[in-house]
Amino acid sequence: MRDKIDIKGFTLKELEKALSGIGEQSYRARQIFSWLYQRGIKDFSEIDNIPKKLITKLDQIYCISSPTPRQHLKSRDKTEKILFELSNGHLIETVLICAKGRKTLCLSTQVGCKFSCSFCASGLNGFKRDLTVSEIIGQILYFRNDFKHKITNYVFMGMGEPLDNYENVAKAVMIMNEPKGLAIGARRITVSTCGIIPGIEKLNGLGIQVNLSISLHGANDGLRNRLMPINKKYPLEKLLKACEDFKGNTGRMITLEYVLIKGINDSTQDIDGLAAIADRLKAKVNLILYSPVPGLNFKIPNPGDIDAVTKRLTEKGVSATLRKSKGRNIQAACGQLAGTKNEI
Q1: Distance (Å, rounded) from C-alpha 141 to C-alpha 136?
Q2: Cα(325)–Cα(287) distance, rounded to whole angstroms?
Q3: 34 and 99, same domain (yes or no)
Q4: In sequence order, what are the residues at sequence separation of 6 or more whose Cβ sits closer than 8 angstroms to the Cβ of residue 296?
Q5: Fewer C-beta neighbours within 10 Å, C or N terminus of the chain?
């Protein structure tokens, strides 16, 4: 018997086409979508408004799969992290961040990462594979349906590089934004990238005005080459031009993510360079304190140096926010996700 197809891998239009291909009316796709994403069913037998003959057909061809939770950690700052096992045994991590009335779900898009940013744990064990559409959506459904969390924001900032898995991430965004799907407003969705220019260009044409976040971490090519090898393929000037095109086409403000690392990217010259880029893009800046990763010899700046950075950016007219690194004690902060079971 052939393997069943995960029905959560289809966008609404794709499911309409698939149902037409097996002799069913396309409007059934909207009904199925509503049951999958608004009612959270886990078995086709739970659907009560389509013919039993169609339910039998669905069960013969399709499945409704979910990642399996293997570890649930809670931080003292209310951050929660789930270690999921996928169907082939690979592991990913998903984080829920609670702050000031917001619940932000940080989604993974790959098992491991191939881009080897020098301060990040996600690529330390190498790249294994892309997540499927269903595996991306499954993270959301678990937190929404099993934990009953009322999530306010969704960020593609977990394990992996979202725009290196563009097709699956784009389909997941369509399902998230689809009124018959998860019905999540585009402005509540943020896609982050280390600087994959072709992916930014594709996202520019997606037609859904999601937020774009750039993992910058260095304001010149020399520093970015050192911290983020992807810069050698897509250097800073070309990246900034792609960002300008995105902003011009979508009208959305871009966010620059900047992990502050002591003695590496926190000098006056570095911060002035960051301010110049923020001014050019009319972007806001999220300053993130480096979170320790076992085996990596980076350090967090001193409190006085951190204050000096935020003050200098403010004096230069930059909208900058110092993001507290939540979940650090459970290895759930920015740069700490590695897809391994934590002994806490």
Answers
A1: 9
A2: 10
A3: no
A4: 118, 119, 121
A5: N
What sign has the CA pseudo-torsion 290, 293, 164, 99? negative
296 and 176 share one domain? yes
Buried b (16+ CB within 10 A) or exposed e, 162-176: bbbbbebbbbbbbbb
User: What residues are annotated to the active site?
Assistant: 93, 334
Residue 34 to residue 32: CA distance in whole angstroms: 5
Is residue 11 a contact partner of residue 26, using CB atoms and an 8 Å limit?
no
Query: Is residue 324, in this structure, part of any structural domain at all?
Result: yes
- Domain count across the chain: 2
139 and 105 Cβ atoms separated by less than 8 Å? yes
Q: Along the chain (344 residues), what's the average pLDDT of each consecutive run of 10 residues?
A: 86 98 96 96 95 96 96 96 95 95 96 96 94 98 92 98 98 97 97 98 95 98 98 98 96 96 97 98 97 94 96 97 91 93 68
> What residue numbers bound the domain in which 37 lies?
5-63
Q: Does 206 share its domain with 253?
A: yes
